[in-house]
Predict the 3D structure of the following.
Amino acid sequence: MRAIQLRAPASLDNLVLADLSGPGDPGPGEVRVRLAASSLNFHDFAVVAGMIPTAENRIPMSDGAGTVEAVGEGVTGLKVGDLVVSLFFPEWADGAPPASAFTQVPGDGIDGYAREAVVVPQHWFTRAPAGWSAAEAATLTCAGLTAWRALFVDGTTQPGSTVLIQGSGGVSVFALQFAKAAGARVIATSSSDAKLERLKALGADELINYKSVPDWGARALELTGGRGVDTVVEIGGAGTLDQSMRAARVGGHVALIGVLAGIAGPVQTALLMSKNLRVQGLTVGSRAQQLAMIAGVEANGIRPVISDHFPLENLADAFRHQIANAHFGKIVVDI
């Protein structure tokens, strides 16, 4: 079985293609999945670049999609031939996340999906959306579910809501697609006019280039007649949080997802308080939320935006493409 392993010290140069023993036959309650695709997230880059410590020889990648090729005794709900997609938190079924969930993230706390096959408990995967390819399904595990939870689980996005998205990565593009399907108005920000035009083609109603308009929070207020937006999908972190709070309406929701612009920094607590804002950190979601998202994309005919494909053996190059910010939407690894 081919797999990518992360040697020590962690770096892109220490991602090594290895020939490992296959996973064998599934036991009771287990399935063997022949993996066909994964997709890149910032979390995966943080692991392979050494920002998130992990075990030596870890197999990276939290996202995985493929076909069930064998089932163990007692397996129900999945059968040979089914296209399935992995869970970011394999042991978080529903409700609040258990504390142990964060120690079992594939590609981080345990081995991930940069390999050709796995044998895992059946509840570590869900069905993929009907009619989707494995490459499309692999985009949902982290980015898709994060956007879904921000808008519809932690948030109350509905027709007439206003949502602000930052940039054109996987989470932001999914948030745009989901928000428009729900009948919301979307304000999109980016440093690239070309990418803003692509976001407009996907349905963005208002565009802000944050390089030419550094005070983009104030601009978002103007675009909403001074009311502010209902939800900000905040992927920057410390470097953009103040602008996000400025853009939000009184009583608005800032879904704090990423740290692309910093992991720590001062916060305008007076603004947070005076606007009665809800700033909520979130990390992906549960199995129940993933199944709800899959039903949602099927009902609305949503398909992911895939920017680029890389073969498994070129995983390091895929990450270099990611950090160059040369992509729009998701980068897929074909296995």
User: Anything to note?
Assistant: Residues 250 and 275 are 5 Å apart (CA to CA). The chain has a mean pLDDT of 96. Residues 140-153 form the longest helix (14 residues). The longest strand covers residues 30-39.
